[in-house]
Specification:
6-stranded mixed sheet, 15 helices, about 15% strand, Rossmann fold
Length: about 425
C-alpha cells in the first residue's frame, strides 16, 4: 500500500536538516513507524526482544549504524534515550536519530538528563484533510498569518459523510476496513489497552469492567469540561462501592502516558483583559472513533439523535460533540505545523465560550466556533464578535467550522468553512 503523506512529514523534513535527534510520540496505530521509516536507513525495533537484547549487549551499535537510525518503540528500553543524548553531546550529525514511542516509560528517570537535546513531536491520528477525501481550500497557516486571506471552495461532504468519518477513525490501519471488521479492530484496540498496555505501564487492572466503564464515561464527556468526579459518578451510577478517586486519577494518568487522552486546555492569555476564565480542560480521546465505539454509536443512532451515553451534562447532541472532537483533532494537526497551540475559551460563569483558540507564539490568535449545521446565523457568531471586542488586533481571524457546502466570508468578515475544506 502506498504511503500516505502526513502533515507531520513537512515538520520532519524541515527539522531533520538541523537537528540530530527527534522523538515522534503518539498513540499506537497513528502511523509513527510508517512515517519514520520513510527516512530511515537502519531500523532497530525494540518491541522485538532479540533486538532489545542485542542493543543492551552492544550499545555502540547505535553509533555504527547507517543513519538515519530509527529506534522504534524506544520506551521498551528507556536507557536508549540517554544513549542517544550522549551521542548528540558527542557531536552526532543532523538527521541521525529518529525515535518513536507509543507510551511514556513507567520510570522517566532516564529522560531527565538534558532531555531537550532530543526534540519531541506529537503525531496524532489522521486529520480530516489528510484522509484524501477532498482537497482543502482554506489554510490554517494563512488564517494565522493575519492577512485575512480569501476564503472560498466547495465541499461535496454532507452530514452523513462527516458521521461516517467519525466512525471510520483516523488510524491508518483501521479506517480502510469494512464496517464490521473496523468495529472489531476498534474493539480489539480498546481491549488491548486493558489487558496489555496498562500492565505494561506497571498498573495491572484488577477490575477490567471498571476501567472500561470509566473510559466510556470519559468518552461521553467528549468536548465538555466535566469534572473527574462527574466522570467517575457517570461510570458507576448507583454503585455504592465506587472506586476511589485515586483509582480514577490513575486511569487518567496511565491513559495520558499512552497518549490516548488528548485534553484541550483552557486558554490562559498573557496579555488580555480577561480575569475570570475557566481553566479546566475539555475532554477528548486521541480519536473520536474510540469515543463513538465505547458508546456503541452508529451512523443511524448519531444521525437520529439517539444518546444512550452515561449521565454527563453537555450542550447539544453526541454527534455534535464528536464532530467538535474531529474538528479539534484536525485543527491541532494543522496548528502544530504552524508552531501554534490550541486551547478552548470559557468564562467561569459560562456566558461566553469559543470552541477553539489557536495561539501563535506572539500570543495573537485565530478563534474557531464549531457548528454541526450547514448554515450560519448571526447568533452563531455572537461569541466571536464578543471576543473581537476584547482582543482588538490580537484577534487575527475568526472562523465558524460547519458541515455545509461552501466556504466564504460573511459581510462581518467572519469566515465560514466546511471542515472538509480546512487544511494546514
Amino acid at each position: 500500500m502506498a504511503y500516505l503523506r502526513r502533515t507531520v512529514d513537512g515538520e520532519l523534513d524541515e527539522l531533520l536538516v538541523d537537528l540530530p535527534a527527534i522523538s515522534l510520540d503518539g498513540a499506537k496505530g497513528v502511523g509513527k513507524t510508517a512515517t519514520a521509516s520513510q527516512r530511515a536507513s537502519t531500523t532497530i525495533a525494540l518491541d522485538d526482544a532479540r533486538q532489545r537484547q542485542l542493543l543492551q549487549a552492544d550499545p555502540g551499535r547505535l553509533d555504527r549504524s547507517a543513519p538515519p537510525v530509527l529506534i522504534d518503540e524506544w520506551q521498551r528500553l528507556p536507557e536508549v534515550w540517554d544513549l542517544v543524548r550522549r551521542s548528540v553531546d558527542a557531536g552526532a550529525s543532523p538527521g541521525r536519530y529518529l525515535l518513536t514511542g507509543s507510551a511514556t516509560p513507567r520510570s522517566a528517570a532516564p529522560t531527565h538528563s538534558d532531555a531537550g537535546r532530543i526534540a519531541q513531536i506529537r503525531m496524532r491520528p489522521l486529520a480530516l484533510a489528510e484522509r484524501g477525501l477532498h482537497p482543502p481550500s482554506v489554510s490554517l497557516a494563512e488564517l494565522l498569518s493575519g492577512t485575512h486571506p480569501r476564503v472560498d471552495g466547495h465541499s461535496p461532504l454532507g452530514l452523513p459523510d462527516y458521521t461516517e468519518e467519525i466512525l471510520a477513525s483516523g488510524f491508518p490501519g483501521i479506517r480502510p476496513l469494512p464496517g464490521r471488521a473496523r468495529r472489531a479492530a476498534l474493539d480489539g484496540y480498546l481491549a488491548k489497552i486493558v489487558t496489555h498496555d496498562f500492565p505494561e505501564q506497571g498498573y495491572p487492572v484488577r477490575r477490567p469492567d471498571a476501567l472500561r466503564a470509566w473510559l466510556s464515561a470519559y468518552a461521553a464527556a467528549t468536548a465538555t469540561a466535566a469534572g473527574y468526579a462527574a466522570i467517575l459518578d457517570a461510570a458507576t451510577p448507583g454503585d455504592g462501592d465506587k472506586p476511589a478517586k485515586t483509582t480514577s486519577f490513575a486511569y487518567r494518568d496511565i491513559l495520558t502516558q499512552l497518549w490516548l487522552l488528548d485534553p484541550l486546555p483552557g486558554w490562559i492569555p498573557s496579555r488580555s483583559p480577561f480575569t475570570r476564565l475557566q481553566q479546566a480542560p475539555k475532554h477528548h480521546l486521541a480519536d473520536p472513533a474510540l469515543a463513538a465505539r465505547l458508546l456503541g454509536a452508529t451512523c443511524d443512532s448519531l444521525l437520529g439523535g439517539q444518546d444512550t451515553t452515561p449521565a454527563i451534562v453537555r450542550d447539544g447532541t453526541l454527534l455534535g460533540a464528536l464532530f467538535e472532537s474531529l474538528t479539534a483533532l484536525s485543527v491541532r494537526v494543522g496548528a502544530q505545523a504552524s508552531e501554534a497551540r490550541v486551547h478552548h475559551l470559557r468564562t467561569r460563569n459560562g456566558d461566553h465560550e469559543v470552541d477553539l483558540i489557536v495561539e501563535r507564539a506572539d500570543h495573537r490568535v485565530v478563534a474557531l466556533e464549531v457548528k454541526l449545521a450547514a448554515s450560519v446565523e448571526d447568533r452563531d457568531v455572537a461569541h466571536l464578535h464578543w471576543l473581537a471586542r476584547q482582543l482588538g488586533t490580537d484577534l487575527l481571524d475568526a472562523v465558524v467550522v460547519t458541515t455545509g457546502e461552501h466556504a466564504y466570508r460573511r459581510n462581518d468578515g467572519i469566515a465560514v468553512v466546511p471542515l472538509a475544506l480546512l487544511g494546514p
